[in-house]
From TrEMBL:
Recorded superkingdom: Bacteria
CDD domains hit by this protein: SDR_c
Protein name listed in UniProt: SDR family NAD(P)-dependent oxidoreductase
GO MF entries: oxidoreductase activity
Length: 239
């Protein structure tokens, strides 16, 4: 029986690769995002259903619920990114507060709200997988703080969902090329440095992350919960 899988931010990059992976396995996949353009593209080419939603907005999430099936087997909280790339450069304290909160909203509050909204629909045997970041360990201002918070919050989520046989884990990528994450602002030197930091000598690609997400959502991973799985080519080591 095919599963129903929601991939937030699934119109581009890592989310789109996750959605593509699941759809290719015959799963029913729904992707979300704020911009109609990428969603239409994904719906036309990836065999997925696409719905507009800003995951930081409770009202938008309530509207999304009305359009979703009653049962969700897998939730991939992928929507996010470093909102500092879109900051206007204002330096005063009010701007600092706004920009700091923007990263917390985009990468932590959005995932928490989405999971809360879907809580009653998460089916036994299901999985929640969040996309974290190497920035949680290496830092990157409020973006890294938000991703670290996501992993910390997931610990409680795993405990809450475990008795219902729903797992909750974080996939934490290093540098992944071929997404809109860096806008057009990644310098050649910085890119070279990010690749050189890996043991494998290459950037990640969205399919690398999708493979890890698919594993955590698979029957092979039913005793894995509350964990962070690093997918970074060896750029950050853990024991
Ligand atoms: N690329 C990397 O090197 C890297 C490394 C570590 C972690 N990550 C994480 O991986 C995830 C995916 O990023 P990516 O690299 O694939 O970049 P991306 O191509 O920019 O994908 C982010 C997606 O999330 C959507 N999104 C952002 N905020 C949203 C919101 N509030 N509501 C709904 N959708 C939202 C975007 O669509 P709209 O703008 O249309 O809403 C976009 O489709 C992010 O959580 C990011 O932090 C990326």
């Amino acid at each position: 029986m095919s599963r129903t899988i929601l991939v937030t931010g699934g119109g581009t990059g890592i989310g789109r690769a996750c959605a593509h992976h699941f759809a290719a396995q015959g799963e029913q996949v729904i992707v979300t995002g704020r911009r109609p353009g990428p969603l239409a593209e994904a719906a036309a080419h990836d065999g997925v259903r696409a719905l507009e939603c800003d995951h930081t907005d409770p009202a938008a999430l309530t509207r999304l619920l009305a359009a979703l099936p009653e049962r969700i087997d897998v939730l991939v909280n992928n929507a996010g990114g470093n909102t500092d790339f879109d900051a206007d450069g204002e330096q005063d304290l009010a701007a600092y507060a706004r920009d700091f909160r923007a990263n917390l909203d985009a990468n932590l509050v959005g995932a928490a709200l989405t999971t809360r909204a879907l809580d009653g629909r998460l089916a036994a045997g299901g999985a929640v997988v969040h996309i974290g970041s190497i920035a949680a360990d290496r830092g990157a201002g409020s973006y890294g703080a938000a991703k670290a918070g996501l992993a910390a919050w997931n610990t409680d989520l795993a405990a809450a969902l475990g008795p219902r046989d729903v797992t909750a884990n974080v996939v934490s990528p290093g540098y992944v090329a071929g997404t809109e994450f860096f806008r057009d602002r990644l310098s050649a030197d910085r890119r070279t440095g990010l690749v050189a930091a890996t043991a494998l000598g290459r950037a990640g690609v969205p399919a690398d992350v999708a493979g890890a997400v698919a594993f955590l959502a698979s029957p092979a991973a039913r005793h894995i919960t509350g964990q962070v799985l690093n997918v970074n080519g060896g750029a950050h080591h853990t024991r």
